[in-house]
């Protein structure tokens, strides 16, 4: 399709009709990272092992965030998610935390927005918990990298 | 301060006590952008003028998102925001929409998280409305660029 | 049925059991209007064309409102809506904005409440955005006009 | 003021800055009614006395609805309400339930939207609980009738 | 199963995949009670009959609470509940209100959490409405007593 | 005071007027515990150290739950909390996890409900994460133990 389907013929926004789409197993995977000072990353690494588990809390926030997607994104359909997973990985050069979110449903519409929201809320929470030591952190590279199911079929980001 | 203040001595997370902080006028400005195919940007430009107002809807979503920050970010204090503004600007090379969010309050804690959340939800909404024509859009450069008020005083990102 | 089915034999409220109802295509259409000074309507008309898009924002609020129905109405079942559309029309005599909301689902219970909530939140948002120039606006004639699907079958308001 | 203040010079929507407004005692009173078949009103009357308390439930829904106003109305400021009251009165000719909501705060912005939302959610809930016996109910005459506090001072609807 | 299934092999929390589980009729029943001074119970009894219906309001809060379970419990799946019922019973010795919540769905995962949340919110609301006369009330014995449907089959608490 | 102040003279529920109460520093402390099989407690203990951090997740859920109190409890005032802390302690005989929540604000009304809600949501989350191995867990002894600030002054539960 080559048009923005959230608008009708008059250019007015609506929540598009998905009632005739088939219920299929749908998966979406999104990624993103938050770049920071190496000293900040050191705080996070120490926390994971012995106190102040920044990554554990951010992961929970991201999972809960995925469930709020239809509340945040105006024309997004509410969906009963069947799986949400958030993986976090530490990267040393440049210092950053990488986030990968995988969301699944059996439904009539895809879950890309839920996977993106999970990444965004996870990274926001890392910012919140580290901002006392590093206000200059930057969130970069938030994108969908893979999508399965639905009429448009499987898709992977070009690498 | 040099430690992650969302943890107590035992390394357990808590919502930090801001009750003794003074009520001051606080401002935070955040930015971010979503990069896309030039064809996608063309759809957005047309929409703004004549139908399908992607940017107008995204702006509203971002403002509403700012109000949900304490719902999304676990250790964030609920705040009565006094102002939220979201500005969007089209950039042609590379094709992108730039978002700047300004949030203000009179309160005991800063509004950086609210400004970041406004940017994130605005950009998520642009993704949602354009994903039928471009799944490969990327959100980049989400960061706080300025902050005023509070004990730590004014701050600007190093340029 | 001739009784208020949200109460059991003891007169205690409950969320009625819809688990045995069949999953059918359900549609509901609701309408309502907000009456205002002709000067206020003039502001709205100008905005739609060149700045300050009151109707575009109200439409988005109404769509998002439909998704919150089960949060607002105590005994309403949560539903995965498959379509929400909100149409707005300007009426000159008396000066008013007319709102029509259409909601669809494939589910075990109807979507009248969602269609009514969409109308109510749309009209509330128009009030909010125009109250600086006209506090006396009135919301009138909010009702369901049509309903399809479900055991009780199709229904239209008597005209 | 004679312009719609939710828009800036470029006609873009924002949540207006109330940070410089003074904190005053603010009150708003809204009304509205739901008209119905006399048989439906009879059901409600019986319920209030002996089982199935439609009005008691609707009143609670309206109070809770007032607290959700800033979630529903995009450019509404979040407010710490200090009082919410919802009164319901039965009217026989034409058969209807009349709702009056009074909301108060000590804050920098008015509570008209909260009072209107309380009325809307109260009446929606009555519709929900009676729709099994009367789909044709109509919500009429929802408006602010009185407002106190703030820079614009006291205001009453013209009678 | 003998492990905590909300964690993956690395011990990281996720929302478990229920996409392959079959859609069955699922029921859960939970109970709990709030113990109080006999004078407080007297206030509640009077209210039920003639004014101030504490139990009616608490029942509504519990039903609405069940709908918010996936918002409150981080790894809980969002579910379309088909029935929620909350029963309240007065017990004189020791003075207490007993709450029983029954929740049903047709879905891929159980509703124990929804039934527990309904009980908790019901009892919290009773506390709120009576705390002006009795701050020492205690919530006791909140547990699932019965569960039907799903792969693990029917279960009853050992008596 | 000797009456249930959430009702007016007619016995109708309302959110009581706190607008004339003074803004004071208010603190509430609540406790509660969840009793379980010793084998279940063993799972939790192992998780805290090496994988699957049940208590860390439950603590976050409790803190977020405190922020949702006014959404859950119908007549509760929305409040800007200045501190929320949740402490968890393992008790071996009988096997249980004890939860203590401390909530603070500077406001016109107390925070007992927020402290109770934090305990309830914390314990619900522990139930959720351990129910695969132990459906018979019981939540016991949820109560306010201390309260400071406000007109009624300081209060401690009788021991």
UniProtKB/TrEMBL annotation, chains A, B, C, D, E, F:
Enzyme Commission code(s) on record: 4.6.1.17
Residues of the active site: 128
Residues given in the record as substrate binding sites: 75-77, 113-114
Metabolic or biological pathway: Cofactor biosynthesis; molybdopterin biosynthesis
A Pfam family of this chain: MoaC
Keyword Heme: no
Single GO MF annotation: cyclic pyranopterin monophosphate synthase activity
Alphabetical UniProt keywords: Lyase, Molybdenum cofactor biosynthesis
Residues passing through the membrane, by range: none
Molybdopterin cofactor biosynthesis C (MoaC) domain: residues covered: 15-150
Any single GO BP term: Mo-molybdopterin cofactor biosynthetic process
Coiled coil (residue ranges): none
Keyword Chaperone among UniProt keywords: no
PANTHER family: MOLYBDOPTERIN COFACTOR SYNTHESIS PROTEIN A
Subunit structure: Homohexamer; trimer of dimers.
Function: Catalyzes the conversion of (8S)-3',8-cyclo-7,8-dihydroguanosine 5'-triphosphate to cyclic pyranopterin monophosphate (cPMP).
Family in the record: Belongs to the MoaC family.
HAMAP family: MoaC_B
Listed name of the protein: Cyclic pyranopterin monophosphate synthase
């Amino acid at each position: 399709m080559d048009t923005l389907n959230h608008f009708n013929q008059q250019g007015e926004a609506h929540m598009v009709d998905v009632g005739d789409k088939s219920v299929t197993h749908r998966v979406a995977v999104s990624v993103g990272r938050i770049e920071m000072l190496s000293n900040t990353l050191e705080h996070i690494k120490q926390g994971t092992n012995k106190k102040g588990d920044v990554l554990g809390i951010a992961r929970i926030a991201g999972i809960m965030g995925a469930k709020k997607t239809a509340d945040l994104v105006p024309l997004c359909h509410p969906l009963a998610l069947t799986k949400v997973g958030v993986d976090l990985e530490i990267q040393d050069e440049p210092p950053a935390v990488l986030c990968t979110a995988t969301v699944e449903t059996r439904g009539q519409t895809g879950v890309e927005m839920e996977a993106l929201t999970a990444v965004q809320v996870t990274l926001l929470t890392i910012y919140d918990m580290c901002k006392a030591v590093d206000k200059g952190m930057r969130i970069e590279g938030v994108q969908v990298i893979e999508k399965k199911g639905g009429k448009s079929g499987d898709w992977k980001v070009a690498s």
